[in-house]
Amino acid sequence: PVVYTVSYPAGPRCTPTIDGDRVYTLGAEGRLICFQTADGNVLWEKDLRSEYRTKSALWGYASHPLIDGDKLICIVGTDVAHAAAFDKRTGRELWKSNTAPEQGYSPPTIIEAAGRRQLVLLKPDGVYAANPETGEVLWTAPYGADNGSIIMSPVQVGDYLFVGGFQEKNLLLKLAVDKPGAEVVWRDKAQHGLSPVNVQP
Predict the structure, then answer these.
(1) SS (H, E, C) 102-123
(2) Which CATH topology does 1-100 take?
(3) Which of 21, 26, 34 is nearest to 9 (CA)?
(4) Model pLDDT for residues 115-131, shown as the tens digit of each residue
(5) Residue ranges in the chain assigned as alpha helix (H)
(6) To bridge 164 with a disulfide, which of 47, 59, 183, 196 should be the other Cys (CB 3.0-4.6 Å)?
(7) Tell me, which fold does domain 106-201 have in CATH?
(8) Which of 52, 192, 197, 69 is nearest to 133 (CA)?
(9) What average pLDDT does the chain have?
(10) How far apart (Å, rounded) are the C-alpha atoms in residues 31 and 15?
């Protein structure tokens, strides 16, 4: 086996994303790096905080990037773009989507609904779905949690999508079956027990 050590500014907040011969890391201050798994050599890197003219959220950049085909999808910034997709081989930006007051912490997640793939993204003031090929916003639902602490991955069960956040800021959406869309079934419903802040149920 090959053993090597890689370090980068501000350290990690999210899990590295491994894709064949490459591994992608996103540091707490927005440094996105693509390494070669064989030897740790840096193939490309981006400073998301600088490139998207934003600052780090309270707990830093913490949502791990998502591989989708030839794309690497990341939560990147604020009023320039909330999410962006990059060519996973070169780091070239392919699209950017939406805006937000800050990054948020939930990782990008792809679901199947209404007969098509939808990229679900959580930001501190809402939930939305985008076309994973173009970044086009398909639907949005207002939502908020204290300190922007929506960390868990959204959970799909059939035609329903559940999101949980800090201080019992829970949300259940009914996904449309004929076209991309969602409506609120209930929100902030008091439950006995803990709200799923960090991990999905």
Answers:
(1) CCCCCCCEEEEECCEEEEEEEE
(2) Lipocalin (2.40.128)
(3) 26
(4) 999 999 998 888 999 99
(5) 48-51
(6) 196
(7) Thrombin, subunit H (2.40.10)
(8) 69
(9) 89
(10) 14
